[in-house]
């Protein structure tokens, strides 16, 4: 056997190892797809319910000016997380490990800022809800809006846990140009949260009045 050439036993062992890794990747992607599909149906049902309530007889539309400005700022921050993770994926495909870690931490920092901003936004929504109840206005949409935004924020926190897991493995050199599905799935999850957030705000705005 020539020097440097792998033995048949080693080649067979590597083949089984690669097959196991591919099976793990496929299972993770399939489970991720089911999870995203269930979340999509949940948020879609919530937005449909919001629209139905908004156009119910005797229900007054929420003034557009009552949508807290923090929610608009949150949109820019969500986009920032998505951009940072897109760049993280681009760098891991080129084996730029340092850049990968930098963009992952950038995404984490923006995500933390998003949660801080959302906290103030939810507080403002609660004040608007209390004002609506004191005025005896029929605006039950405030409760639905608060619930959907709060649930979205919880999933953002879950995304931060996922992102921290990816950062941990990035420092253990688990990702390279051939195997980086963990980074890919994390980025896709945040892109999904981004799309859901934009759709929710668009729905709230279209059912409001000036």
From TrEMBL:
<keyword id="KW-0472">Membrane</keyword>
<dbReference type="Pfam" id="PF00510">
    <property type="entry name" value="COX3"/>
</dbReference>
<feature type="transmembrane region" description="Helical">
    <location>
        <begin position="67"/>
        <end position="90"/>
    </location>
</feature>
<protein>
    <recommendedName>
        <fullName>Heme-copper oxidase subunit III family profile domain-containing protein</fullName>
    </recommendedName>
</protein>
<feature type="transmembrane region" description="Helical">
    <location>
        <begin position="142"/>
        <end position="167"/>
    </location>
</feature>
<dbReference type="InterPro" id="IPR000298">
    <property type="entry name" value="Cyt_c_oxidase-like_su3"/>
</dbReference>
<keyword id="KW-0812">Transmembrane</keyword>
<dbReference type="InterPro" id="IPR013833">
    <property type="entry name" value="Cyt_c_oxidase_su3_a-hlx"/>
</dbReference>
<feature type="domain" description="Heme-copper oxidase subunit III family profile">
    <location>
        <begin position="29"/>
        <end position="209"/>
    </location>
</feature>
<dbReference type="GO" id="GO:0004129">
    <property type="term" value="F:cytochrome-c oxidase activity"/>
</dbReference>
<dbReference type="GO" id="GO:0019646">
    <property type="term" value="P:aerobic electron transport chain"/>
</dbReference>
<dbReference type="InterPro" id="IPR035973">
    <property type="entry name" value="Cyt_c_oxidase_su3-like_sf"/>
</dbReference>
<comment type="similarity">
    <text>Belongs to the cytochrome c oxidase subunit 3 family.</text>
</comment>
<feature type="transmembrane region" description="Helical">
    <location>
        <begin position="102"/>
        <end position="122"/>
    </location>
</feature>
<dbReference type="InterPro" id="IPR024791">
    <property type="entry name" value="Cyt_c/ubiquinol_Oxase_su3"/>
</dbReference>
<keyword id="KW-1133">Transmembrane helix</keyword>
<feature type="transmembrane region" description="Helical">
    <location>
        <begin position="30"/>
        <end position="55"/>
    </location>
</feature>
<feature type="transmembrane region" description="Helical">
    <location>
        <begin position="188"/>
        <end position="207"/>
    </location>
</feature>
<dbReference type="GO" id="GO:0005886">
    <property type="term" value="C:plasma membrane"/>
</dbReference>
């Amino acid at each position: 056997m020539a020097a440097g050439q792998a033995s048949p036993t080693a080649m067979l062992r590597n083949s089984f190892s690669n097959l196991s890794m591919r099976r793990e990747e496929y299972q993770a992607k399939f489970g991720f797809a089911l999870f995203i599909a269930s979340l999509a149906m949940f948020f879609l049902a919530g937005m449909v319910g919001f629209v139905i309530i908004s156009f119910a007889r005797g229900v007054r539309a929420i003034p557009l000016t009552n949508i807290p400005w923090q929610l608009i700022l949150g949109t820019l921050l969500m986009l920032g997380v998505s951009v940072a993770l897109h760049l993280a994926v681009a760098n891991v495909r080129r084996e730029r490990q340092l850049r990968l870690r930098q963009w992952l931490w950038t995404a984490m920092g923006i995500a933390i800022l998003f949660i801080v901003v959302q906290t103030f936004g939810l507080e403002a929504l609660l004040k608007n809800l209390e004002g609506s109840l004191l005025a005896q206005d029929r605006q039950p949409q405030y409760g639905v809006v608060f619930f959907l935004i709060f649930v979205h924020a919880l999933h953002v926190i879950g995304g931060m846990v996922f992102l921290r897991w990816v950062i941990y493995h990035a420092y253990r050199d688990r990702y390279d140009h051939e195997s980086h599905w963990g980074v890919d799935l994390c980025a896709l999850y945040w892109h999904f949260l981004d799309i859901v957030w934009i759709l929710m705000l668009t729905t709230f705005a279209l059912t409001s009045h000036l």
